[in-house]
Amino acid sequence: MSKFDYCNFNDGSYDIEFVSHARKYTKDQAIDLCFAENDWRFDKRYCDTVDPLRIPTVNDVECKSVRYYPGGLESCFADDGGPIYSYCKQGQRGSFPVWVISFSRLEV
Description:
This protein is mostly beta strands. The chain has a domain at 6-65 and 97-106. The chain has one helix spanning 27-37; strands at residues 6-10, 15-21, 61-69, 84-87, 96-102. Strands 1-2-5-3-4 form a 5-stranded antiparallel beta sheet, with helices on one face. The longest helix is centred in the N-terminal third of the chain and has 11 residues, at 27-37.
């Protein structure tokens, strides 16, 4: 089984999604992990310039596929070209399902 558990994915500048392994966690657990890892995004005290995000529901959780790229990807924004996890086609060699919570979908 993959060593991947969960983390925020970014676009090279900002975290845009929370991603968790779908074979290790349920959708409800993914929501709890997202909130625990990003609690400040949902708290008015830490969101001076924008409104805090709303708490995700199971309807906000999407299923996608991810795989490990040991040499990185040219299309990614990684500075060092080192290994990364990134989206791929379902069924691609080394892929596994993940739950994805997009922060933009949680904007109030």
